[in-house]
Structures are given as C-alpha cells and as structure tokens.
Amino acid sequence: MQTACNTFTWTNGNGNTYTASNNTATHIIAGGAANGCDSVMTLDLTINYSTITTSTSTSCNPADVGTNMTGLFTMANGCDSTHYDTVSLAPATATLLFRGAILLRQIVIGILLPLLLTILFWWCWPMAAILLQPLMLLLINR
Predict the structure, then answer these.
(1) With the C-alpha atoms ordered 107, 111, 114, 120, is the resulting torsion angle positive or negative?
(2) pTM of this prediction?
(3) DSSP classification of residue 6
(4) Are 58 and 89 in contact (CB under 8 A)?
C-alpha cells in the first residue's frame, strides 16, 4: 500500500505519474521470479490532497490593512494545508459611531454644561437673595 499527497510517480513500476488513487495499475517484470517466471507488481495507491483556504479579517487600525498572513499546516492525512488571511479595514460605521460619541461628548461638556450652570446661577441667585434677606436685615440692624 502506497500513500502520497497530490501526485505519485511509480518509479519501480511503469514510471507513470498518478494524481488519483489507483489499485489496478500493474507492471510485469519478465523473468523476475526466482524460478524464472514473470513477476507482476500491482500498485495499491491512495492519493490524499492538500488544501488551500483563504479568509478575510477586519481591523479598526488602518495600519493593519493590506497585511497578508500565510500559515502552512500539516493536515491529519499528512498533506500540507496552506491558509491565506487578508486584513481589511473594519466597516466605516464603527468609526463613525466612535467619532459621533466624541462629538456628543464635546457638545455636552462645551455647550450644554455651561448653559445649565448659567441657568442655575441666575435662577438660584434671586432665590438665595430672598432666602438670605432676613439674615441680612438682622446683620444691618444690629
């Protein structure tokens, strides 16, 4: 029994190269037996195949774009397996959402918070004056 990956050339037999499993190929060696009779060799061949796979990964980092990684692995059948991975940029929606969150934060801190503090100051100041008026009168009339 002979096992090979992808192709097999039968060098002790007929010299043919096989790319598929075969158990019918024969080669006759004239007078090859000890008693002078012909010998018949039969090929019992199993061909296993290598694989090539590809995938695409995404990254949020533009510097990773175009990075191509190649991995060479040995499969359970003993043949090589090659895997190619290409890195592409993550969809723009993630980047836009991130930028939108930053913009919203800047609006809240830069505009809404000062506006709220101003409103509270102008609303609380008259209330504080009304509440503190009796105390101020006491201090003045002493």
Answers:
(1) negative
(2) 0.48
(3) S
(4) yes
